[in-house]
């Protein structure tokens, strides 16, 4: 550099001297280490590019499955609204009330008014071919679902389908051999909830792993049936959540129907799919289980729709008063409501049918259940795992407040079918014979019948096991229990 120019730049001072030990500052041939680390860059750019394409492919498949699932639910909703639903559509429509992944914009404002059957009812009414088709449809939904609760719902339904198909198959020699064991197993597992079933499963597995002497067929059949009843228990919990969420939605749109649904025993009212209202209907009403009437006094009270089975049910004010008074008495600890009504075969209409409108009497019946600690039950059960409850008696209360001839009390008779006589048994091993108990009254009431267990009645006058047959103030009461059989050594 020119010394004059150097002096002008650095002034009168001499230029700074470079440390001979410092690195040479040359932009073209730089020998210092770079300040930025090179570890952040991938060693192989091709691998990084391949992994990113794989992730994109997985994301594309997931989005495609999500779209297919959404479209399947939309199609199911449309078929239900138009009254042409398939079994899988009814099951998918039930799930809408607890599906957190559902898009609210896909719902119609009248969807909450549509009553569909409970999931178990949908499965139980299908034949073998329909169950096979339903099983394939459920598998598709289960594969596409990512929501944990929804997958449990479809998994439980698939378990019920497999069990139902197994029961519809012809029974071979092995199946007949364990039929008595299966009957006991169902009676034990049916009343237990999900937590009790899980606890019982652990106990049974521990018992089978032990070296103690036991009835292996019995305990293996019990363990095999446990999965089915666990699926039923899960569905019961899911149906309870469905009912609760639907009631919350109905409280805003239809408070009256919400109150009726809240006091019914079933989570979702079981009706036929053809009864579902169409989308184009201007006003939608709940599907009624009783005949419409212009008089409000003839309509059944809320919560009693399941007792109405025909169009000639008696809903007079007198009957309503008697019924409500009997309901107010409540149900005992070992009692259950009994509604096993059977159709009564009639050859011709009664002579008084033209003069009086025939009507079916209303009733509020109870069945008494309890344990029988015989030698067999004492050997196979204990108080922690009690034996299945058996029917020990019945309490029939039939209401006839509007009898034309009040001097003639209604009567009853026992009808044994297929030529069976008293004391004879045609039932398979492990099961009990049944018979029809028919109640007969004069005009304007039709006969009514119930199927009961055919065992010997106890006619003693003991207070706790007393026999009662009376007709007073329009109520026919028939209360009885079965005789206890004591085996002597």
From TrEMBL:
Annotated InterPro entries: Cactin_C (IPR019134), Cactin_central (IPR018816)
Splicing factor Cactin C-terminal domain residues: 352-489
GO biological process: mRNA cis splicing, via spliceosome
Basic and acidic residues biased stretches: 16-28
GO cellular component: cytoplasm; spliceosomal complex
Biased composition (Polar residues): 29-42
Domain named Splicing factor cactin central: residues: 52-238
Pfam families documented for this protein: Cactin_mid, CactinC_cactus
Chain spans, region Disordered: 1-49, 272-313
Protein family membership: Belongs to the CACTIN family.
PANTHER family: POLYGLUTAMINE BINDING PROTEIN 1/MARVEL MEMBRANE-ASSOCIATING DOMAIN CONTAINING 3, SPLICING FACTOR CACTIN
Name of the protein: Splicing factor Cactin
